């Protein structure tokens, strides 16, 4: 019962309800906008309209307003009286909505009228006014009368209320491509339909029609409704291809993916598609059913591109339908997969070179351009090879950027971006000094594949867009001569049959070729065509032309230092250091685009090579364009051994380090032109400093220190104004001022960096077999993990103190064959991808490995270092080897073949018998030798004019010395190559000092007092210095014997009997 003088709770609630009813319910409206769905937010409370004040008005708050007013979705939430200042009280303040409330006042707020706010803080809202858009009455979902959904009813939009920009936004929103046209629809007449009251004024870049500005247009009549015609597609993709850039063309139309059935599909249209998909250029349109049939819809239509530089949105598909597609009419394409390069101001295959950086096209400088890089670009554009890089007639004024990139290609790359790229320190040039190229053209019908260059390898011809084999049972040098002439590769050096393991299968283009040697094309010879034969039945043929000769530097830390090697007659070989001097080294450096020579090295400074020694007694003037153009002995004629292999250090050899701190902190120095020098800090950003740290393997975060934190430098100041972007993984790719030894105004401008990351530490167990990245053999730097045994699993390689994996891009059985051979695990059973044996951890060191299958080591195969993020551990490569040792396989350079796993304590009966008989034989021979010695001693006593005992002693000494040297050589070769057996040169014993270490000649340039071993990547430098001072290159994986080890090892000392050692036994 209620206390006297007080109202009970039920009575109080009834009283409040009666007051609420008498005062009326709360209301919401939008005022002073273009219509009922935009304007200043006003609330009616206690029979009085007031405003809403909120300094943090969000789209979630606005969404509740639009939903409450049935105005579709919120487009914009606006502050500071965008629709003018209101009047009356401030009813709501600091409203905080989740977005799902039914009314604005149900959101959290401070209370009704709790705070009086100046009206210039009144908030506003723009709602879409409709909740959907569609095109009706057309042939497809991408054409028809325009309607918008207002509340629960579809309203018609008048033709006078939209324009072409509005139509473009509508087509984009509906995933129907681009607007093709807007048409007057049917005449309304006496039709009674809901008409949309606002005019749309789109800019054209809006993602939804609701985001376009609108004006209220009060009318209840409409002469014609609006009809919108879209191009009919929302996107393209390639399906069922072997790569992401090949396959069957599928079209997104009206929100549904389907196969494009195009009776007029051709290469120009395919070319536009490849470019739009960032896949380079169209190589061919494959035939047959190799790409399978689509499981979804089929869109019939014609894909028409009217100009070469069109985008896909400019190439509408017309007459779409759902009919079945006849065989062979579905659109398909194989793209090159290489984007970012083109030729302009010329023909399809000649012109000015332009490359794309971060969406911007620019030209290259002719001074940084070379024929080898040009050939890669021609191949990338499906234009054959580069015939010339001189084409001045087509140069024109250019207002765009001039990129200073220099590309250093080996010749086997598929894309220009696979080549080593150096930009740092390169000078700029004018538009009239731009790089150009004339390619051989797209109509090449002959090629050599699988070799070290375009001028050696398997002979293949193109028939109907498909590359086919050439088979012959009587292939000779005359046939090869025609091939070399047609490819403009010089003269034929060798005609050969491919080994059985490298023979192909499938379509045969030519068979039984008979040439006289004077024909200009292979097809002009007597031939038989079109035969398909099983693998290995007939002989696939190959050619080596003189144009295949190449030069490279091996075992240095990067491309401009190392042991000189030449590719000739299909084999890589070395150069002897007899008479090797700075003039010879200059030719090498110039030929490789590495500047000039700093030092000419002798005595296998970069380690011994293997195999052939191609040149000896080289005597260059320095003006020759190729090393083999210098006077020398004939190819392969020499009196040298591999401990005399020549090497060079060129001026463009680059290295990076942080000094006076630790591996990841210090004063920044760069090695150039033979000298360490500082880097200036002008315009140095955190991003550039982070690129330095990333380059050195110290993370990607950095702090730029000041006030000589890591001391003052004393050498030159090489660079200034270095600018890197997020795309750069190496400092060498960044833009900067040209090289200048006085780049800084004073030492206060030197760069001091502290990296926030640290080089990854490796557990001591990891070093058990491979103690550091310098002294491991090739065999020790390779392993397989996660398989059933040590001959199957995920492939891992050792580099910079840690194990890392290989990306499975282009990974195939030829790569797996090399891995299995190097591990001593027989032949490859399969090459596996997509982390078949589990995902690895740590870095991914390599991608795009391209082995031929004949290499002795994985480090002999072309590959690309992975600095970016194009791969992750889901793509780790793996192998499955047979596990059986092949007796015909050559051992790796560093290790003997692996023995099959057996119990070492068990011997078969034949083995025991052989041991016993061998022991008895040795005893008999020893007794016999003793008897011969005694007989000769007696003869010496009786014949003073002849001393046979002395001769026997000398013979015994000679025999024992040779045995001792052979034993020592075997014991010291724990990480070196099993010595090759060479015939002893005729004058070897006449010139006992020929193999002694030669001092550098008078032409060697000074290294300005620097530590040579530290600078040039001498095999003896420490891991810490090398890892912190230099970036990665594939040649860093090479095994190199340290200088100290060479000098202390008895097997490598010059004892005067070195020539006997090479005889072997």
UniProtKB/TrEMBL annotation:
Residues in SRCR domain copies: 28-128, 133-231, 236-336, 341-440, 446-546, 551-651, 656-756, 782-882
Biased composition (Acidic residues): 1055-1065
GO MF term list: serine-type endopeptidase activity
Record InterPro entries: SRCR (IPR001190), SRCR-like_dom_sf (IPR036772)
Signal peptide (from-to): 1-24
Transmembrane segments: 907-929
GO cellular component, one term: plasma membrane
Compartments, as annotated in UniProt: Cell membrane; Secreted
Chief subcellular location: membrane
S-S pairs: 53-117, 66-127, 97-107, 158-222, 202-212, 261-325, 274-335, 305-315, 365-429, 378-439, 409-419, 484-545, 515-525, 576-640, 589-650, 620-630, 680-744, 724-734, 807-871, 820-881, 851-861
PROSITE patterns associated with the record: SRCR_1, SRCR_2
Pfam families: SRCR
Entry keywords, A to Z: Cell membrane, Disulfide bond, Glycoprotein, Membrane, Repeat, Secreted, Signal, Transmembrane, Transmembrane helix
Region span, Disordered: 994-1065
Membrane topology: Single-pass type I membrane protein
GO terms for biological process, alphabetical: zymogen activation
Name recorded for this polypeptide: Antigen WC1.1-like
Taxon lineage: Eukaryota, Metazoa, Chordata, Craniata, Vertebrata
